[in-house]
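Hey there, shall we discuss this one?
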Amino acid sequence: MVSEIRIYIEGGGRDTRSRRLIREGFGQFLRPIYELAAARGIKWSLIPSGSRNSAFENFALGLRKHPDAFNVLLVDSETRVTRRRWEHLRQQDNWNIPSVPEEHCHLMAQTVEAWILADPEALIAYYGRGLVRSALPKHSDIEAVAKVDLEKSLDRSTAKTQKGRYTKIRHCADLLALLNQDRVRKRARHCDLLFTTLEAKIRE
């Protein structure tokens, strides 16, 4: 059984406060996995790393400094995923991919906003009156929606709300904490893969 899980996440910006907030947001979204790990005495760390390059660098460092942990990289895919995950990142970012199995690599496809848009009920609860629900993508496979269209959808749907237009810095962490895991997993297969991989690793 694995003794520690460490997840290196793209996002959180450069300052301590924004990284704390995004850690809390992801922590709430991944809470079922955290509770499963805690019940088995498995250490749990979420490491927001700012840019995707920094996340990858921190992940590579984690492989060396924490070889006994299950180290996971979690970054936006940026584009539609049509190949194996490590190969996608090799092509997308020209990274020197480490020699570790595919289970260490996980993607928010095509971006973390896809997970947010996968749960309209969370958006309604957060933004309240003024949210234009008709502007939200209807596609059952949210990963098929291009990144630019995800951004436009969030912008249009939230423009007239009291909280104002969606911005990653001000709203992303709060929304992550409100998401229903089952609703997101049904529309985002790479999110479901993250959950199932972590669940399986914990139960080994």
Q: What stands out?
A: The mean pLDDT is 96. The CA atoms of residues 10 and 163 lie 24 Å apart.
